[in-house]
Automatic annotation (TrEMBL):
PROSITE patterns: ACT, D_2_HYDROXYACID_DH_1, D_2_HYDROXYACID_DH_2. One of its GO terms (biological process) is L-serine biosynthetic process. This is phosphoglycerate dehydrogenase. It comes from Lobosporangium transversale. Pfam families: 2-Hacid_dh, 2-Hacid_dh_C. InterPro entries: ACT-like_dom_sf (IPR045865), ACT_dom (IPR002912), D-iso_2-hydroxyacid_DH_PdxB (IPR050418), D-isomer_2_OHA_DH_cat_dom (IPR006139), D-isomer_DH_CS (IPR029753), D-isomer_DH_CS1 (IPR029752), D-isomer_DH_NAD-bd (IPR006140), NAD(P)-bd_dom_sf (IPR036291). Belongs to the D-isomer specific 2-hydroxyacid dehydrogenase family. PANTHER family: D-ISOMER SPECIFIC 2-HYDROXYACID DEHYDROGENASE CATALYTIC DOMAIN-CONTAINING PROTEIN-RELATED, D-ISOMER SPECIFIC 2-HYDROXYACID DEHYDROGENASE FAMILY PROTEIN (AFU_ORTHOLOGUE AFUA_1G13630). Residues 382-452 form the ACT domain. Pathway: Amino-acid biosynthesis; L-serine biosynthesis; L-serine from 3-phospho-D-glycerate: step 1/3. Its EC number is 1.1.1.95. GO terms for molecular function: (S)-2-hydroxyglutarate dehydrogenase activity; NAD binding; phosphoglycerate dehydrogenase activity.
Length: 452
């Protein structure tokens, strides 16, 4: 059940109130966000009416941060089935997910009041970003708080694979003593091939060099090589020269089955494959074949095309039982440090968007912010207007605001949508209602919010 914290005395949102179109419900003025920084708390709603659903065991730092705002926060330890999610999402203003929950167009169509999505992870492939943007729903993620955790896991896996530690460990637990050195190697001097030299790939590059590895990488864009690493011209070249190939690309149309039979055949005999990116990047039957035939010396796989929604005995894969194959349940980013940082980072972005309209860091939405309205700026409002990105819109808005004092204004666009924030001072309650009505009735309106 949702747990409701105390209200902060702010004016109430209408009973059917939606963050995605927050009209000024009651224009009674309220005090400052805190005595210390003297900036106004910008919101036309009672925070206790804002409903937030957090799935997939999102860290306590986020739950606490959001509850401290007074929002209603309901939490679940696992992902929900599509049917249950469609029911749950109807009534909520904000949802927090990790990599399992699929926010498809079908699910989002049911989300009548949704204004913002928090992905408490790096990947955002699980959300229909374009449809969310069309609906004026901003999506935030945590672009690098778990990168180090993934890079450290991969370093561990390189050593484990190289020494066949997974198999030795299993044998020992079965009472089998099998002391061998054949096909076991030091990693010093070996070539690590990194596919995708972004936040994780480049961090890994530094750690691997510190352990004496030679690093080569492939990326679709030219990037500055760290240390003595080098970018190579093609994926094929990287596959042919590497002793270890590790994948750190996002899930896109281009990366789907990026490593299949053809690519595995290009890899050196006895080399190793590591995938901690997304399950769709590797063709699993081809990998199982390459492992069973002995063409590959081993693999470490953390992500799978189909992953169970909850913990339990639900995992099935053709990779089960393959030689020298480390299988982990998508734990690349699962450390206390990463989860705690992600919880803080994403919940802060959600709070800023809900309360102040700030979209900095959004992945599908124009990034706009204005400096805070200060206490002494009496009777000020903030207009947040998400609209279709077509010619002539700013003229309409300028006409509507022409008689008022616009203190500051900023707008930006991304693809088909644009977002404008404007702070307007010395407006009466009647004028606020009128501004809201006229802006929200413009033909290009997607979402209009007035915060004060
Ligand atoms: N196993 C786990 O728990 C985790 C998995 N991940 C996955 O790792 C992925 C990578 O994360 P970051 O390094 O933070 O992303 P990033 O966006 O910083 O870097 C990705 C790099 O891949 C490159 N790239 C994109 N398409 C490519 C292609 N077709 N061929 C070659 N390079 C390509 C990009 O140019 C970029 O440099 C995430 O998208 C996520 O899916 C992220 C965190 C945890
Ligand atoms: O950050 C990511 O993209 C991840 O894959 C980690 O996902 P998780 O938060 O563990 O479901």
């Amino acid at each position: 059940m949702p747990s409701t914290n105390e209200t902060n005395g702010a004016p109430a949102v209408p009973a059917n109130g939606s963050l995605a179109s927050s009209a000024p419900a009651n224009v009674e003025r309220k005090g400052s966000i805190s005595g210390s920084n003297k900036v106004k708390l910008l919101k036309p709603f009672n925070t206790a009416n804002i409903k937030i659903l957090l799935l997939e065991n999102i860290n306590e730092t986020a739950v606490t941060g959001l509850r401290n705002q007074g929002y209603q926060v309901e939490t679940y330890a696992k992902a929900l089935s599509e049917d249950v999610l469609i029911e749950k999402i109807r009534d909520i203003h904000c949802i927090g997910i990790r990599s399992k929950t699929k926010l498809t167009r079908k699910v989002l169509e049911a989300a009548e009041k949704l204004g913002v999505i928090g992905c408490f992870c790096i990947g955002t492939n699980q959300v229909d970003l374009e449809y969310a943007a069309q609906r004026g729903i901003a999506v935030f993620n945590s672009p690098f708080s778990n990168s180090r955790s993934v890079a450290e896991l991969v370093i561990a896996e390189i050593v484990l694979l190289s020494r066949q530690l997974g198999d030795r460990n299993q044998e020992m637990h079965q009472g089998i003593w099998s002391k061998v050195s054949a096909n076991c190697y030091e990693i010093r001097g070996k070539t690590l091939g990194i596919v995708g030299y972004g936040h994780i790939g480049s961090q890994l590059s530094v750690l691997a060099e510190a352990m004496g590895m030679r690093v080569r990488f492939h990326d679709v864009v030219p990037l500055m090589p760290l240390g003595t690493s080098k970018q190579v011209d093609s994926l094929n070249e990287l596959l042919e020269i590497s002793d270890f190939v590790t994948l750190h690309v996002p899930e896109t149309e281009e990366t789907k089955n990026m490593i299949g039979e053809h690519e595995l055949n290009r890899m050196k005999k006895g080399s190793f494959l590591i995938n901690a990116s997304r399950g769709t990047v590797v063709h699993i039957p081809a990998l199982a074949k390459a492992l069973r035939s002995g063409h590959l010396g081993g693999a470490a796989v953390d992500v799978f095309p189909k992953e169970p929604a909850a913990n339990g005995k639900f995992f099935e894969s053709e990779l089960i039982g393959c030689p020298n194959t480390l299988l982990t349940p998508h734990i690349g980013g699962s450390t206390e440090e990463a989860q705690s940082m992600i919880g803080i980072e994403v919940s802060q972005a959600l709070i800023k968007f809900i309360n102040n309209g700030t979209s900095i860091g959004a992945v599908n939405f124009p990034e706009v912010d204005l400096r805070a309205i200060r206490d002494e700026e009496e009777n000020s409002i903030r207009l947040c207007y998400t609209h279709q990105n077509v010619p002539g819109v700013l003229r309409q808005i300028t006409d509507i605001l022409a008689e008022h004092n616009v203190d500051k204004q900023f707008s930006d666009s991304k693809g088909k949508i644009a977002y404008l924030m404007a702070d307007i001072s010395d407006v009466t309650p009647e004028q606020i209602q009128e501004i809201y009505r006229r802006v929200s009735e413009t033909p290009t309106n997607i979402v209009t919010r007035v915060l004060y």
